[in-house]
Amino acid sequence: MAISVSKRPQPLMQFSRLSWRALLRELGRRGQGRKEAGAFLLGRPGRDQFKVRKVVYLDDLDPTCLKGGIHFQGLAYSKLWDICEAGGLKVIGDVHTHPGSSVHQSSIDAENPMVSQAGHVALIVPYLATRKVDPSQVGVHLYLGHDGWTTWTGAEAALRLTLRMLP
Fold first, then answer.
1. How far is residue 61's CA from residue 38's CA, in Å, rounded to a whole number?
2. Which of 27, 98, 130, 151 is most enclosed, with most CB atoms within 10 A?
3. What's the burial of 34, exposed, middle or buried (CB within 10 Å: 0-12/13-18/19+)?
4. Please, which residues have CB within 8 angstroms of residue 8's CB and are 6 or more apart in sequence?
5. What distance lies between CA 142 and its chain's CA centroid?
6. Quick check: 74 and 95 in contact, CB under 8 A?
7. What is the pTM of this model?
8. What is the mean pLDDT of the chain?
């Protein structure tokens, strides 16, 4: 009888514990407990590209985008690309909040990826980020291009969204 040994999946996104807490606190503050808030997550191209190095909040790029849901204007992407170029960074994902406990994508989320490039990771944080959230409570969504999305929640999400001790 052969025993199958499953290999732990590589993380798709990694934060320091400190930066994760700061991100949640800031998303909650920006959404004021009443509306969704979000951010782009930037990393360095190369071997450790899954490590979040910088967070750029959507409403810093488009001050009018938080209207209950998020209505991000396409022109604001030029500011994002300038930030990436200046810092030698690239967009590795985005995060936004949902009210309540659901971290599944809405039809609007699924049909309108923030970066429509295969490999982009979208995180959804519950409760408008107004309480402590660990990775197992987050929806992790990987964009596959024309093939749609792959989604992980619970323990599977925690394998793909990891927190590390160091900054």
1. 11
2. 27
3. exposed
4. 159
5. 10
6. no
7. 0.92
8. 91
